[in-house]
Amino acid sequence: MLNTPAIPPGGAAISGSAESLNQNPGPGPFLMLADTLTGNDVVNPAGDKLGDIKGIMLDVQRGRIAYAVLSFGGLLGLGDKLFALPWSALLLDTDRKCFVLDADKERLEKANGFDKDHWPSMADPRWASDLHLYYGRRPYWE
Prior knowledge:
Shape: globular
CATH superfamily: PRC-barrel domain
CATH class: Mainly Beta
Number of strands: 7
Distance between the termini: 32 Å
Helix content: 10-25%
Largest sheet: 7 strands, mixed
Strand order of the largest sheet: 1-6-7-2-3-4-5
Number of helices: 3
């Protein structure tokens, strides 16, 4: 049975067995260093690997996590396409030690991605609203 605590609007959900949620004497899974999440796999509910987390974008003015940056495709880091994912679209699965995104590979392939040298203007309200709408999430700033 998965134990999913209540989360504030715009936050990522956390799931796992009682043992995995309470196994650490130190930080995690409710408070974690952002860099410990970099490299974590992202899978869909069917267990298909979608990629891994390349970074976490902070909204400095609001003091919130805005997005996770997902790397998808490519081979050995070459040709990867990057995608911004609303933080609230992710579920941290403490049992499998990965993030779950409720999207199949085809949906991700159709999403607006970018490469490491050409990032979108993530502070653009229209871009941000469209992104949240694409993943069926309420914008975190509302």
